[in-house]
Specification:
With about 250 residues, the protein is of the alpha/beta class. It has a single domain, classed as Ribonuclease Z/Hydroxyacylglutathione hydrolase-like (Metallo-beta-lactamase, Chain A). The chain is about 20% helix and about 30% strand. It is built from seven helices and 15 strands. The strands form two sheets. Strands 1, 2, 3, 4, 5, 6, 7 and 15 form an eight-stranded mixed β-sheet that branches. It has a seven-stranded mixed β-sheet with strand order 8-9-10-11-12-13-14. The longest helix is centred in the C-terminal third of the chain and has 11 residues. InterPro entries: Metallo-B-lactamas (IPR001279), RibonucZ/Hydroxyglut_hydro (IPR036866). It comes from Aeromicrobium senzhongii. Pfam families: Lactamase_B_2.
């Protein structure tokens, strides 16, 4: 597998990065299969630096906050109106009600919602399926809206993406033994943080240590958050291989 960090800014696009979008690629049936984990605000532009938007094979949306899904509106236009014609419907694995919410965000999708270019497939806690070369699993996480962590496995390698989540010991079991753990770290320990919303660097490190992951990638750090403080928090709980990702980073699994 190859992971490309298309966007990693937390909560909204920052000056150096779009919001959450991660491109995962792997060989499949003589070609490269391309799957997106989230397509947040501002991500559709830089995504075109890496792939043709018509070559996306599947999308997983962890939840329906704008910084994780709102550039689906632009992709809707590409998939429906491109001069070369409409490609096959694109599988979108997402929480219940995704078509309705994204259709309202776009504004003019009656009477078919977004179902002409997209094939929405509902994700629930414990969901498991095959997506091209990947085995995909989902775990519900604590967050103000329905949200999921995603685990992708391919040819003995594994990637776990936390999505947005408050601290949950169950995430340790879900991420156990992952080669790469792509984990949000939006908060810092020095702040008075609300519960069941996001992780601190220390909490991400605690989960990664208990899960014995191969490599920890911290993401979803908001533009107003001090990355050095997030890293310092992380180092109180984690001594393994890690990186605070930036847009454009590429990781081979």
């Amino acid at each position: 597998m190859r992971l490309t960090i298309v966007g990693c800014s937390g909560s909204f696009p920052g000056p150096d990065s779009a919001a959450s979008c991660y491109l995962v690629e792997a060989p499949f049936e003589g070609r490269t299969f391309r799957m997106l984990l989230d397509l947040g605000s501002g991500a559709l532009g830089p995504l075109q630096d890496y792939i043709d938007l018509r070559d996306i094979d599947a999308i997983s949306l962890s939840h329906l906050h704008p910084d994780h899904c709102f550039d689906m509106s632009g992709l809707y236009v590409v998939r429906k109106y491109h001069p070369s014609g409409r490609p096959p419907r694109l599988p979108v694995y997402a929480p219940v009600g995704t078509d309705w919410q994204l259709s309202n965000a776009y504004g003019t999708t009656a009477p078919n919602g977004m179902t002409l270019p997209f094939d929405f497939r509902e994700v629930v806690d414990g969901f498991e399926t095959t997506v091209g070369p990947f085995t995909m699993r989902a775990m519900r996480t604590p967050h103000p809206v329905e949200a999921y962590a995603i685990r992708l496995e391919c040819e003995g390698r594994s990637l776990v993406y936390s999505g947005d989540t408050g601290f949950d010991p169950a995430l340790t079991r879900f991420a156990a033994g992952a080669d790469v753990f792509l984990c949000e770290a939006s908060f810092v320990e020095s702040a008075d943080n609300p519960p069941d919303l996001h992780l601190t660097g220390a909490e991400a490190g605690r989960i990664a240590t208990a899960a014995d992951v191969g490599r920890l990638l911290l993401t979803h750090i908001p533009p107003w958050t001090d990355r050095d403080e997030v890293e310092a928090d992380l180092r109180t709980e984690y001594t393994g291989d890690y990186r605070l990702v930036r847009a454009g980073d590429v990781v081979q699994l």
